[in-house]
């Protein structure tokens, strides 16, 4: 486990997810309560491990082992292509967002 040089606060993490979404042309979930919980989880993971480990998965706390699930994870785009949103339901494609559909539980794409 590598402790972060400088801890991040909730606002830092909120800016991070907004930056990732803007940069990729994605939308964030419109469920404000859920968004807050994901941001909280990411923030906690950053301050615990030193990187934004996916809050919906069990990371090892070892960056090398977790590198595929550092947000935005390696599975985000394939999941968006198939389901319209990432595994956590944080990042939505514009098309999915516009459809007004709710995110759903989707299968874990990460190999065991
Ligand atoms: S599933 Fe979504 S929130 Fe979790 S790491 Fe991947 S992109 Fe980030």
The low-confidence parts are: none
> Percent helix among the residues?
40-55%
Straight-line distance between termini: 21 Å
Radius of gyration: 14 Å
Shape: globular
How would you characterize the overall build of this protein?
With 112 residues, this protein is mainly alpha-helical. It has one domain (11-99): Ferredoxin Thioredoxin Reductase. 46% of the residues lie in helices and 4% in strands. It contains 5 helices and 2 strands. It has helices at 10-24, 32-49, 63-66, 76-83, 94-99; strands at residues 27-28, 91-92. A two-stranded antiparallel ribbon has the order 1-2. Helix 1 (10-24) crosses helix 2 (32-49). Residues 54, 56, 69, 71-73, 76, 86-88, 90-91 line the site of iron/sulfur cluster.
Keywords summarizing the entry:
mainly alpha, two-stranded antiparallel ribbon, 5 helices, binds iron/sulfur cluster, 46% helix, Ferredoxin Thioredoxin Reductase, single chain, 2 strands, 112 residues
